[in-house]
Amino acid sequence: MTQTPLRTAITSEQDQDQRLVYSGITWEQFKLIQAGFAESNRVRLFYYQETIEILMRGRAHEFNKTIIGFLIELFCLESNIEFEPTGSMTQQREGEVSVEPDESYCFGASKNTPDLVIEITFSSGSPKKLQRYQPLQIPEVWFWQNGTFSLYRLNDDHYEAIAKSQIPELANLDIDLLTNCIAIAQTSRLEASNTFRNGIKKR
């Protein structure tokens, strides 16, 4: 088993994400490791191509994922859209892949597979991470990195970059407005929510 520990500094020591990657892991070994972390809310696990990624989220990671989720849910409430937040619910294909996104949602009705998953990432490699979602047939994957979104839509057997969501319920979601309000939220959550709400009403 090969261990490659990686560390990504964010803004301060207490904000750090800690990321560990181990290769040469069987599915059975992964399931044992997964069981060992069952009670840890801050740890996310990913498994694909015999490689396990263990991500221990720092403060900045938690902040951004919560703000993004809050604003998406605010959009749904203001737009009278039915939604189901499925959070970091594990999505997996037995023996092949397992993921725990930062946030995930079903829109319109509950489904076995979420319509959207969102990952907060402070390191490069987002397109490569798409590979582990393809076997799960997740319709849309969004990455938040360095203050911007990268949106991808599943088209047949691969993901394509898109400028706005193609999920019908999110067709009127202004990604630029969402991005701007996430930036505002770094200093004022109240101002961010008011700006976002007003922006929705103007559309």
Radius of gyration: 17 Å
Q: Characterize the biggest β-sheet.
A: 6 strands, antiparallel
Helix content bin: 25-40%
Q: Mean pLDDT score, rounded? A: 90
Tally the helices. 5
Query: How many E strands?
Result: 12
Fold and architecture overview:
- This protein is an alpha+beta fold and 203 residues long.
- Helix content is 29%, strand content 32%.
- It is built from five helices and twelve strands.
- The protein has helices at residues 27-36, 59-78, 126-129, 175-184, 189-202, and strands at 2-8, 17-23, 43-48, 51-56, 83-85, 91-93, 97-99, 103-107, 116-120, 140-145, 148-155, 158-162.
- The strands form two sheets. The chain has a six-stranded antiparallel sheet. A six-stranded mixed sheet has the order 5-8-9-10-11-12, with helices on one face.
- Strand 3 (43-48) and strand 4 form a beta hairpin.
- The model is unreliable at 4-11 (pLDDT under 50).
